[in-house]
Amino acid sequence: MAEIVEIRWHGRGGQGAVTAAKVLADACLSGGRYVQAFPEYGPERAGAPLRAYNRISSKEIRMHCPVLRPKVVSVVDSTLLDSIDVSEGATGDAIFVVNTSSDAKEIREKIKAGPGQKVYTVDATRIALDCIKRAVPNLPILGALVRVTDLVSLEHLLEDIKKSFGKKFSQEIIDGNLEAAKRGYEEVKEG
Amino acid sequence: MPKIVAATGNEGVANALRQVTPDVCAAYPITPQTELMQRFSSFVSNGQVQTELVLVESEHSAMSACVGASAAGGRVATATSSQGLALMWEILYIASGLRLPIVMPVVNRSLSAPLNIHCDHSDAMGARDSGWIQIWSENAQEAYDNTIQAFRIAEHLDIRLPVMICYDGFIIGHSISRIEYLEDGEVQNFVGEFRQVNPLLDIEHPLSYGPLILPDYYMEYRKAQDEVASKVSKIVLDVADEFKKLSGRKYGLFETYRLDDADIGIVILNSAAGTTKDVIDEFRDRGIKAGLLKPRLYRPFPYVEMGEALKYLKAICVLDRSDAFGGSFGQMFLDISTSLYPYDKKPLLINKIYGLGGRDYLPEHAEHVLNELIEITRSGKVKAYKEYIGVRE
Questions:
Q1: What pLDDT sits at residue B301?
Q2: Contact, B85 vs B127, CB < 8 A?
Q3: Cβ(B266)–Cβ(B366) under 8 Å?
Q4: What is the domain-level CATH number for residue A183?
Q5: pLDDT at position A2, please?
Q6: Do B80 and B176 belong to one domain?
Q7: Are residues B317 and B240 part of one domain?
Q8: Coil, helix or strand for B167?
Q9: Which of B201, B229, B247 is the last residue of a domain?
Q10: Which of A92, A96, A148, B220 could, after both became Cys, cross-link A116 (CB 3.0–4.6 A)?
Q11: pLDDT, tens digit, for every residue of A150-183?
Q12: Contact, B63 vs B86, CB < 8 A?
C-alpha cells in the first residue's frame, strides 16, 4: 500500500456516503494506521449532492483540508456523472468505483478515464433493494471499494459493520447490510 | 493499555470530560459544540458519568451556573462556540476575577453577522484578554490531551484560573480521526481529587465572593491577578512533563517544527499548522530552510520564549484566522510583533488573514506564503504588511 491513500466520495444526501466513509475509517484503523473521515458540511438536504473524504496512512496525517488529488473516487449516485466532474484532480492511476447498472466500459467513456486509471462498477442500488429493501447503496459500494483497493479484508469490514451498526439497529437490518456489503464485494466489475 | 479509536474531535473531548468526571456541567448547545455536549449528556443519561448536568436557557446562564457551582466547591466544566462565547462575555471576567478553575472547550467558529457556522478564531480571540488561560489544539488528539491537562492547570493551587481549550470547529470537531485514549483510571489519577480552597458551601466558615471593591483596592486586586497569571507558563510546562510520562506525548508552550536552522517561518494556530507542516517538508526537500511555530499556550502569551525562538529568522509570516479590520492586524500578528520588539536585529514580519468563516486553507496557500517569504529575504523588501489570502478580488 502507498504511504497515504486519499479517497473522495460523491453522493446525495440520504444515501449513506458519509456513513460509508466513517465505517471505512474505523475498519482501516487496524495495523496501527492513521485515518480521517469527514464530509463537506453544507445545508444538509436529502437528495442534494455532497462530498465526503477519507485519508488512510501508515504515518500520522497532518493535512486538514479537503482531498484535492484523490487516488480513489467513489460515486454513490451515477446521476451525478451528468452534473459533476468526478474525475477532477484524480491521480493518473486513480481507481473509480461507480454505483450503476450500466456497463463499466460505458462509464469509462463517460468520465473520460485516462489509460492509467481503472473504472469499476457495481449495481449497488439493486443490491441494497434486494438486501435491505431500501435504496441506500452505501454498504454495497463500500464492499466493492474494499475489494478493488485492498485497504482491508472483507472479513474485517464485515466485523466492523457489525460493531458500528450493532448498537443502533435490529438484527434483521444488520444482517441485510452485511449481505449487501458482501454482495458488493463479490459483484464489482472492471471496465 | 491505551485504546485507539476513530472518533470525531468532539467525541474525543466528550470522552475526556467523562473520564475526568466534573461535579457539575452547565451547558447550552451551539454548533459546532453541540455534538460534544450531546455526547456528554448521553454519558450522563446512561449513567456512565456521575456529573450533575444543568441544562440552562443560554450561555450567559451556563457560565453563571458554572461560576456558582465552582464557588460552591465543585469541579466544573462547560463548552461553547462563537455566539455562545460572545454571550458569556460578561461572566467570563467574573470567573477569572474570582479565580474559579472552570474548564471550557471552545470549538472555534466565526461570529455573526453575516451568520456562518464554520471555523475561524474570532470567537476565542475576542475573549483573549478576559483573564482566562487559552490552550489551542491542532488535532483531535491534542484537543483530548489538552482537555485532561486543563483541569490540572486550572486547579493548580498557585493559580486557580479558568481555562479554555480551543480547537477548530468542523475541521477537527466533526471530522473523524485516530485518537489514543488513556484509561479511565489513569485520567482520574492524573487529575486527582479536586478541593476548592474557599468553598461557599463550607457553612462552618462563611465567606463572601464578589464583593464591591472601590478605587482604594481595585487596582491592587488586578495587580495580584497579573502576578498570578505570570506563573501560568511554568505550571503548563510542569503539567505537560507529567502528562508525557503518562502518555508519551510531548507538549510545551508552543511547538516548533524544523525551526532551529530556518531562514523563513510561519506562525499559525490549530489545524492549519498540520497542513502547513506537510508543505514545509516539501520546501525542505528542495533545500529551502523553512520552519513553523505553532502556539499552544496563547494566554497568557509567552512573549519572551516566543521572541527567543523566532528572533534568528530572516522573515516570518503570521497567519491569523481572525482580523481586527482596517488599519490593524490579526491578533496573533500583534502578539508576535510584541515578542520580537525588544530585539535590535529581528526578522521582517508580514501578516496574512486566511480561512475566515470556514474558507479552506489549502497547501497552495502555505506555498504562496513561503514563496513570498523567500522573495522578502532576497530583496529585503516587504510589499504589503497585511493581506487576505484565499479570497476573491
A1: 98
A2: yes
A3: yes
A4: 3.40.920.10
A5: 58
A6: yes
A7: no
A8: strand
A9: B247
A10: A92
A11: 999 999 999 999 998 888 889 999 999 999 999 9
A12: no
Q: Render pLDDT for A121-158 as a digit per residue (tens, 0 to 9).
A: 999 999 999 999 999 999 999 999 999 999 999 999 99
How many separate domains does chain A show?
1
Read off the pTM: 0.97
Q: What is the CATH number of the domain that holds B166?
A: 3.40.50.970
pLDDT digits (tens, 9 = 90+) for B344-368: 999 999 999 999 999 999 999 999 9
Q: In terms of residue numbers, what domain contains A157? A: 4-190
Q: Strands across the sheet with B24-27, in order?
A: B52-55, B24-27, B76-77, B103-108, B163-168, B133-136, B297-299
Contact across the interface for B278 and A65, Cβ inside 8 Å: no
Q: Are residues B128 and B259 in the same domain?
A: no
B249 min Cα distance to partner chain A (Å): 13
Beta bridge partners of B351: B318, B386
**Residue of A34, A60, A62, A167 to mutate for B, most B C-beta atoms under 10 A:** A62
Per the CB < 8 Å rule, is A62 touching B5?
no
In this predicted structure, the answer to whether residue A52 has a pLDDT above a threshold of 80 is: yes
Summary mean pLDDT of chain A: 94
Which domain, by its residues, includes B364?
A: 254-388
A68/B175 Cβ within 8 A? no
Looking at the structure, do residues B17 and B72 belong to the same domain, yes or no? yes
Has residue A1 got a pLDDT over 60?
A: no
- Same-domain status, B225 and B294: no
One-character DSSP codes across chain A: --SEEEEEEEEETTS-HHHHHHHHHHHHTGGG-EEEEEEPPS---TTSEEEEEEEEESS-----S--SS-SEEEES-GGGGGTS-TTTT--TT-EEEEE-SS-HHHHHHHTT--TT-EEEEE-HHHHHHHHHSS--THHHHHHHHHHHH-SS-HHHHHHHHHHHHHTTS-HHHHHHHHHHHHHHHHH-EE-
Total CB pairs under 8 A between chain A and B: 64
ipTM above 0.85, yes or no: yes
CATH number at residue B351: 3.40.50.920
Residue B383 forms part of a structural domain: yes
Q: Do B274 and B242 fall into the same domain? A: no
Least Cα separation, residue A57 to chain B (angstroms):
11
Choose the final residue of a domain: B212, B247, B282. Answer: B247
B178 to A35: CB separation less than 8 angstroms, yes or no:
yes
Contact between chains at A25 and B278 (C-beta distance less than 8 A):
no
Among all chains, which residue has been given the C-alpha cell 458551601?
B201
Tell me which residues of chain B have a pLDDT lower than 70.
none
Chain B nearest-CA distance from A130, in A, is: 31
Average pLDDT, chain B: 97
Question: Are B275 and A26 in contact (CB < 8 Å)?
Answer: no
Q: How close does chain A come to B251, measured CA to CA in Å? A: 17
